[in-house]
Amino acid sequence: MKKLYLFIILLLPLFAFSFEDYNIKSVEFKPKEFNVGESVKCSVFLEVRENLELVVPETIEDSKWIDIYDISIDRKDQLCVIDIYFKSFKIGNLFIPDIDLGGIVLKNIPYYIQSSLDANDISISEPKGQLYLPMTFTYSLILILFLAGIPVLIFSLSGRIKNIRTKIFMFFTKKRPFKIFMKECTYLKDNLQTLESKLFYTKLINSFRSYLTVSTKDDFFSVTTGEMQVLLAKHFDDLVVEDILSIVKHSDEIRFSFKNENLRREEKDLLRIMEICSNFEKNNYIENELKGDVE
Predict the structure, then answer these.
(1) Over 90: is that where the pLDDT of 149 sits?
(2) What is the pLDDT of residue 168?
């Protein structure tokens, strides 16, 4: 506001009777300090000749930085008050445009408009806290709950996971001895005509003993034919045990007598052993499945 007063004092010589028709006594602004875009009332106090007639202009000179939207005149004898209502859109020391009041032209009315961001009023605010994207807290909470729920889920499904793991292990391990045995039987079947009976029965019985040892965890390799009957009874019914013992005893006779057997008998014994092992493998797999369901 000090700038405004200094500006007006410097320009007062221009107001003094430069024109004989009127003399500006004073200028008042309400509010006294104003910013860009605010409504302001400027009251100009004049001394005019008694016979001088003043009228409100129908049109006002256009300006890019000021909008004069109303003017009123209040006169008592030689004292006249001109109220000018305006909004300014430019910062600094400015002049109200010339206003033709009929008998006189009001000129050189200065005013000062300040910025709403006055340098003296600017203060640096304290740093604010961490800013987060929208929904950050919600997503973080969901992630925490999800991570916390994983151990609970694993614990609740541990029984089923164990069963599935057991079945997978059985699928890849239990089937392997049977596949090896069947592969050896296929070799014997394809080479019946070329293999000697002794070699044929030696391979067949050794493969059979090996398969039973791995599948049942009982040692069928180190037992004699007579002792083998006790172990077979644990895993097969009586008729199957009789068939197995018959083939094993016949194999012993062939190996120790050094005589050749006809191909039909060899093929029959081979197919019977393959059938017994296939049924045993199937029954063993079904039994393990039932144990897994019970667990």
Answers:
(1) no
(2) 58
Tell me: do 92 and 188 sit in the same domain: no
* Sign of the dihedral through C-alpha 217, 221, 227, 233: positive
Question: Residues 39-64: pLDDT tens digits?
Answer: 899 998 988 887 788 888 887 777 77
Per the structure, how many domains does the chain have? 2
Could you tell me if 283 and 200 lie in one domain?
yes
The residue from 113, 128, 147 where one domain ends is 113
Assess contact for 207 and 184: CB atoms under 8 A. Answer: yes
Is the CB of residue 21 less than 8 Å from the CB of residue 48?
Answer: yes
Question: What's the rounded mean pLDDT across residues 218-235?
Answer: 87
Full DSSP string of 16-80: SSSSTTEEEEEEEEESSS-BTT-EEEEEEEEEE-TT--B---SS----SSEEEEEEEEEEETTEE
Q: Is residue 34 part of a domain?
A: yes
Among 98, 113, 128, the domain boundary falls at: 113
Global confidence as pTM:
0.41
What the block records as the tokens of 289 is 């499945």
- In this predicted structure, the answer to whether residue 281 has a pLDDT above a threshold of 70 is yes
